Amino acid sequence: MAIFSLPTKIIAGENCLAQHSAELAALGKKALIVTGKSSARNGSLQDVQQALTQEKIAYTVFDQITSNPSIELTRQAADVAKAHDVDFIIGLGGGSPLDSAKAVAILKTNDLDDTALFSGPYPQPFLPVVAIPTTSGTGSEVTQYSILSNSHLETKTSIAHPGIFPKLAFLDARYTLALPKHITINTAIDALSHAVEGYLSVKATEFSQIFAEKSLALLGESLPHLAGDLDLPLRDSLLQASTLAGIVIAHTGTTAVHSLGYSLTYFKNIDHGRANGLLLTAYLEFLSTEHLDKVNAILALLQLKNLDEFAALLQNLLGAAETITADEMALFSAKALKAPNINNTLTKPAAADLILMLQKSLTVSA
Ligand code: NAP
Ligand code: ZN
After folding, report:
1. For the chain, which terminal residue's Cβ has fewer other Cβ atoms within 10 angstroms, N or C?
2. For residues 34 and 52, what is the distance between their CA atoms, to the nearest angstrom?
């Protein structure tokens, strides 16, 4: 059996916000824009403000969201949403502002402690969310996930609920034109890991595979060019690949790479996409034992001959890996085994398998 559902209306193309601002009017009269400092400084905030003014929608801006946002910071944004009694939330930026915006949409109408924020129950319906990505990586604009740094559990924890699928996603690659090189690379590799992990998830269906295949094909064409100057068509390809991969993980979830990667980000401050990218080759090696046909299909979609070429492509983009200690490897693998998404992995890894993945992916120090 296969089910496919995408409740998000995607509006894509240059100037799509200005041309389709009327879509916003259906969501209410007062909006909160949840964004970060750089996320807002690429023409996107100006476009959003113009669109809201055009539709006579009042708005407030919360621009304090930082990378890997915490529960506490998200609550600050939710307090602003409550103080202004807004009707809907606009997430503008990378995955961090988008994920915070989704959690704000929950917290505006529901009084929840930190545990219930992730688990529910949620007595009240959430506010509608509009998502406008300014990075090409997370696909958060088309997923039902919001991932927050959770100091109680010392990891990143997901809220997964159909009510936080954005109602609207506006995709305009112009907003990503000035993304610094390392963020472009890290976020593109996040999209790659979504497409790869989704393709290899126990929840993959014939529908999700179509999206994964198209995303991998676009990434296969784009990734070798990331080191050079990126023009608008290439930026557009990356944004498309990222959204397609988001549609994939909305159906398949992520797998062991993300389960392990969360600790690399939480404890070692390694960017989310980079953390995944460091682990991907060892993960594919691990799955090659039982699922060589699927791994080879991924390599072919990426226009690569073998895993060595895959490793070289990533090494070229990511450079030297960070160091890790034996204690860290034990801790991170134990945490990954408790992450719900590890159960989506085609061959479920044991602690020893995860430690081996970390050993192969990072530089082991004393
Ligand atoms: P991000 O943390 O949102 O942003 C990374 C950096 O890029 C920030 O410093 C940000 O600056 C800057 N930035 C964003 N847009 C820019 C632009 N157009 N020009 C210049 N700088 C810009 O990174 P991300 O990789 O997109 O998101 C990562 C987060 O998403 C993680 O928390 C991850 O767990 C989550 N995630 C969510 C999903 C999902 O389905 N919900 C999936 C995968 C990952 P400012 O902070 O100053 O704005
Ligand atoms: Zn990710």
Report:
1. N
2. 14
Pocket test for ligand 1, best of 156, 193, 272, 276 (most atoms within 8 A of CB): 272
CB 94 within 8 A of CB 132: no
CA distance 278 to 215: 20
* Beta partners for residue 155, in sequence order: 150
pLDDT at 88 over 80: yes
- Mutation to probe ligand 1, out of 183, 193, 248 (largest number of atoms < 8 A from CB): 183
Give pLDDT, residue 161.
98
145 lines ligand 1 (CB under 6 A): yes
Give the CA angle between residues 269, 230, 239 to the nearest 5°.
65
Tens digits of per-residue pLDDT, 265-319? 999 999 999 999 999 999 999 999 999 999 999 999 999 999 999 999 999 999 9
Q: Is 135 in the pocket of ligand 1 (CB under 6 A)?
A: yes
HSE (side-chain half, CA atoms, 13 Å) at 300: 7
- Please work out whether the CB of residue 44 comes within 6 Å of at least one atom of ligand 1: no
How many alpha carbons fall within 13 Å on the CB side of residue 17? 25
Asked if residue 38 has its Cβ within 6 Å of ligand 1, the reply is yes
Protein residues with C-beta less than 5 angstroms from the ion ligand 2: 190
* Among the listed residues 340, 333, 156, the one whose alpha carbon sits nearest the alpha carbon of residue 260: 333
Identity of the amino acid at 44: S
